[in-house]
């Protein structure tokens, strides 16, 4: 057990040492400077190495002293030198706007404006997203950062070490969230996500970081790899499917909630409002759904959270009048302390199909009386209809089978003559073929009263 704890402590120290500001709060680690092992190549001298790769040409003196080199102009080929990372020169690096959607702004060089596809982004730039807006950043080593809706993220460090080309990046989540997919990085490079209350450091993994300004609380969720999270002088490691909540210097490590499920995963969303009903999940305080045109969520365009607000207290996500199309939805559940759990992705079809605007009128035609029923088709594409009318009993229920049950109606109207006095109900079913599916939906029944 002690050996395992030592291994974990060592890994945490190595990861978190990528952020000097945090390392200063850890006295034990600060006394042992991190070094990079360098193998001497033909023609190398300490003076040349310092001029090319260190912060100051005179920094060779410390390397000479630490490694007990007699002559800085003479080095044995193949010799190993321990070079303090704090001495290594890191040159500016850049990121690139790979894609965005919705209300997004980029603040860079004192100017705030909408970004451009493929635009270069430099250190200290800030990206902000509005509701249902997303931005995807490509870093120079193939890593990616997604900034979801209602978030503000600063690219606080974009550097590349001159000695070996290792990249060192840091982002600060000032509000909202950031989702990172980080490729494995060579030392001394690393990747850090900061919030006002925590630091999350990795060298290759997939994770999310969010910051709730109202609660002064951050959440780090690991979906792949290992992440070291620190707050104040405390630190912990989170592995795949674990999360860390940080608030007031307190860290709480917990398993992520499992992915929720749809109650009707194969259903076509044909109602007026595009609504997903979710199977309730124990421990979930609310649910999150992200919509995209691709399963990888690269081209995301909408996101919403929901508490328990469906019928009977069941969770429900409502995307309003979503345009017809083939889409994907990624579902996750959030715990009470704001940690987002594991996600699952469903494909679905949105094809509006309904019948509305139902109106029944009557008029006299000679000795006969005509009853005209009209409606409006809701949805795209050709539709046909089925008209039903039945007589109601005293209890308000259908008094036997329908008196009229007419399928194959192509007009948005139907006419009957000389109905006897009584109370009737009628409804219309709309049918159409979309996306390889037969869609059918009934209208709400309408009542018709005919006096003597």
UniProtKB/TrEMBL annotation:
<feature type="signal peptide">
    <location>
        <begin position="1"/>
        <end position="23"/>
    </location>
</feature>
<dbReference type="InterPro" id="IPR018392">
    <property type="entry name" value="LysM"/>
</dbReference>
<dbReference type="InterPro" id="IPR013783">
    <property type="entry name" value="Ig-like_fold"/>
</dbReference>
<protein>
    <recommendedName>
        <fullName>LysM peptidoglycan-binding domain-containing protein</fullName>
    </recommendedName>
</protein>
<dbReference type="Pfam" id="PF01476">
    <property type="entry name" value="LysM"/>
</dbReference>
<feature type="domain" description="FecR protein">
    <location>
        <begin position="126"/>
        <end position="227"/>
    </location>
</feature>
<dbReference type="InterPro" id="IPR016930">
    <property type="entry name" value="UCP029644"/>
</dbReference>
<dbReference type="Pfam" id="PF04773">
    <property type="entry name" value="FecR"/>
</dbReference>
<dbReference type="InterPro" id="IPR036779">
    <property type="entry name" value="LysM_dom_sf"/>
</dbReference>
<keyword id="KW-0732">Signal</keyword>
<dbReference type="InterPro" id="IPR006860">
    <property type="entry name" value="FecR"/>
</dbReference>
<feature type="domain" description="LysM">
    <location>
        <begin position="38"/>
        <end position="84"/>
    </location>
</feature>
């Amino acid at each position: 057990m002690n050996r395992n704890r030592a291994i974990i402590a060592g890994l945490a120290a190595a990861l978190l040492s990528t952020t000097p500001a945090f390392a200063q709060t850890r006295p034990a680690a600060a006394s042992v400077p991190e070094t990079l092992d360098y193998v001497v190549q033909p023609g190398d001298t300490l003076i040349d190495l310092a001029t090319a790769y260190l912060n100051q040409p005179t920094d060779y003196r410390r390397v000479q002293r630490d490694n007990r080199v007699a002559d800085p102009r003479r080095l044995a080929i193949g010799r190993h030198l321990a070079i303090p990372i704090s001495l290594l020169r890191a040159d500016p690096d850049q990121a690139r706007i790979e894609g965005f959607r919705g209300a997004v702004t980029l603040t860079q060089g004192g100017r705030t404006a909408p970004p451009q596809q493929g635009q270069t982004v430099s250190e200290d730039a800030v990206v902000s997203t509005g509701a249902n807006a997303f931005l995807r950043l490509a870093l120079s080593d193939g890593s990616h950062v997604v900034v979801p809706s209602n978030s503000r993220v600063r690219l606080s460090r974009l550097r590349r070490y001159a000695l070996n080309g290792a990249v060192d990046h840091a982002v600060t989540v000032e509000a909202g969230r950031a989702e990172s997919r980080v490729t494995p990085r060579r030392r001394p490079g690393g990747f850090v996500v900061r919030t006002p209350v925590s630091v999350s450091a990795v060298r290759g993994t997939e994770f999310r970081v969010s910051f709730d300004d109202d609660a002064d609380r951050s959440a780090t969720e690991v979906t792949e790899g290992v992440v070291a999270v620190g707050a104040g002088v405390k630190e912990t490691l989170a592995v795949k499917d674990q999360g860390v909540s940080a608030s007031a210097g307190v860290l709480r490590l917990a398993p992520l909630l499992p992915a929720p499920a749809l109650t009707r995963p194969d259903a076509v969303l044909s109602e007026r409002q595009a609504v997903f009903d979710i199977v309730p999940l124990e421990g979930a305080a609310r649910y999150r759904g992200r919509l995209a045109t691709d399963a990888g969520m690269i081209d995301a365009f909408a996101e919403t959270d929901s508490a328990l607000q469906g019928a009977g207290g069941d969770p429900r996500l409502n995307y309003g009048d979503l345009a017809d199309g083939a889409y994907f939805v990624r579902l996750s559940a959030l715990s009470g302390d704001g940690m987002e759990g594991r996600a699952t992705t469903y494909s679905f079809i949105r094809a509006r199909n309904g019948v509305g605007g139902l109106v029944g009128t009557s008029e006299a035609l000679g000795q006969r009386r005509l009853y005209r029923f009209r409606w409006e088709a809701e949805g795209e594409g050709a539709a046909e209809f089925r008209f039903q009318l039945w007589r109601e009993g005293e209890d308000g229920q259908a008094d036997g089978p329908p008196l009229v049950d007419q399928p194959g109606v192509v007009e948005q109207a139907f006419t009957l003559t000389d109905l006897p006095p009584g109370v009737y109900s009628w409804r219309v079913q709309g049918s159409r073929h979309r996306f390889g599916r037969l869609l059918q939906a009934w209208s709400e029944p309408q009542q018709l009263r005919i006096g003597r």
